[in-house]
Specification:
The complex is a heterodimer. Chain A is an all-beta fold. Chain A is 0% helix and 50% strand. The radius of gyration of chain A is 14 Å and the shape is globular. The N and C termini of chain A lie far apart (38 Å). Chain B is mainly β. Helices cover 0% and strands 50% of the residues of chain B. Chain B is built from no helices and eleven strands. In chain B, strands 2, 4, 5, 6, 9, 10 and 11 form a seven-stranded mixed sheet that branches. In chain B, a hairpin with a 6-residue loop joins strand 9 and strand 10. Chain B is globular, with a radius of gyration of 13 Å. Classes of the chains: A mainly beta, B mainly beta. Chains A and B meet through strand 5 and strand 10 of A and strand 5, strand 9 and strand 10 of B.
Chain lengths: 118, 111
């Protein structure tokens, strides 16, 4: 079974509107972390936001927030007030095990392409 | 500024040739990683290293080799045994927490 699932083939959003990018995960480890990265067409991977499995509140970073539903094993990224520069590929990733473990692996989903329309 | 530097940005390989991709970091991170990305796909782990002079195979290590002689450096060699090397290669490092800090990548193509 895939550990990280991103099934939306491509998303479109009007500038200044909000958009939700879906991510579901699968793990039996009670301790894990979830990451979202943005990859523009230039190729670099930009860290956006992090959510730990024991965090009580949903993570927020500026216009980015993470809708963390632990029972459903989903960690959807919400981008508010979309900008043209948000057009990119977005990857969800999971680290299983406690943070600080030297050999913690990060598993990436296949990504979602977001296009922001003016 | 601290970060990851990958070079070259573009690289071309001839048949039967080995090529080496450079990755240097000044973040003082112990762990370093190499990922491969094919068009429209996610990242797949090639090799990783938790400490100097030690490294482990990832999910797709065949046809690749690495070394970790210095904490700052983790070069990747794409050998002639890798029959489909055309891809985008990303190097990363991490401290505690697991968050990866990425370089800008190297695009490798076959001549």
């Amino acid at each position: 079974a895939q550990k990280i699932t991103q099934t939306q083939p491509g998303m479109f959003v009007q500038e200044k509107e909000a958009v939700t990018l879906d991510c579901t995960y699968d793990t039996s480890d009670p301790s894990y972390g979830l990451f979202w990265y943005k990859q523009p067409s230039s190729g670099e991977m930009i860290f956006l936001i992090y959510q730990g499995s024991y965090d009580q509140q949903n993570a927020t970073e500026g216009r980015y927030s993470l809708n963390f539903q632990k029972a459903r094993k989903s960690a959807n990224l919400v981008i508010s007030a979309s900008q043209l520069g948000d057009s990119a590929m977005y990857f969800c990733a999971m680290r299983e095990g406690r943070s600080g473990r030297a050999n913690s692996k990060l598993t990436f989903g296949k990504g979602i392409t977001l296009s922001v329309r003016p | 500024d601290g970060g990851i530097t990958q070079s070259p940005k573009y690289l071309f390989r001839k048949e039967g040739q080995n090529v080496t991709l450079s990755c240097e970091q000044n973040l003082n991170h112990d762990a370093m990683y190499w990922y491969r990305q094919d068009p429209g796909q996610g990242l797949r782990l090639i090799y990783y290293s938790q400490i100097v002079n030690d490294f482990q195979k990832g999910d797709i290590a065949e046809g690749y080799s690495v070394s970790r002689e210095k904490k700052e450096s983790f070069p990747l060699t794409v050998t002639s045994a890798q029959k489909n090397p055309t891809a985008f290669y990303l190097c990363a490092s991490s401290g505690t927490g697991g968050r990866r800090h990425f370089g800008d990548g190297t695009r490798l193509s076959i001549l």
